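#lab-general

N.A. 3:47 PM
ok so I finally got the sequence cleaned up, no stray characters, all 228 residues accounted for. can someone with queue access submit it? mine expired

B.Y. 3:52 PM
send it over

N.A. 3:53 PM
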Amino acid sequence: MIDNPPLLTIRRGHARPDKALLEAFRFAQTSHLCDAMDGRGALDWRIKPLNPAQAVFVGPALTCHAYPADIVAMFGALAEAEPGDVVVCANDSFTSTAVFGDLAAGMMRNKGIAAFVTDGLARDKAGIIATGLPVFCQGISPNSPARNGPGTVGFPVTLAGVHVRPGDIIVGDPDGVVVVPAERAEQVLARLAEIRKAEAETERKVKEGMTMPGFMTDIVANARIENA
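B.Y. 4:20 PM
back already:
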């Protein structure tokens, strides 16, 4: 690049989903949400909760991008966040230092932030868990980052294989994190109701002894058979 970027760049003014719409997604099972979005929407499997007992959350994304080994953007997002936001911190999947720790977790909890999600690492696991803040990351490292920037807040990011924009609906549970694009939220919600109904019906049949789902019956029956 010709010139160094600013230490921190913040874009303000993105829309947040209606609270009633957010509440409709609360406690939605992430696998059901993926089914409602044609089997996609979840972050890479490596992004898991530090504590599965503190993994359930929903909220609008407040995005940031932190350069590897740097936390300026993470704190920039902390400054910009509103109660209920989910801070989504893209870190280029960097794994040599943490991008988040227990003190930042405590500050986010104090501010009413719903969760912190990153494709990077965290540190001070016990301290983070003690705050009660749901935190999803790629793992743990005691290595500490710097505060040199550059960083951005409020711009679209790509994190763990999924494009995330400010205001998208972020849902977490012990299985992982799902991103529901804001413009698809109503459609996904309607489809979610169908998925839940179908899942409940199939679960009932399994408990009654079903050994093969109907959609596989013809495929298996018409398979080409070769004897060894």
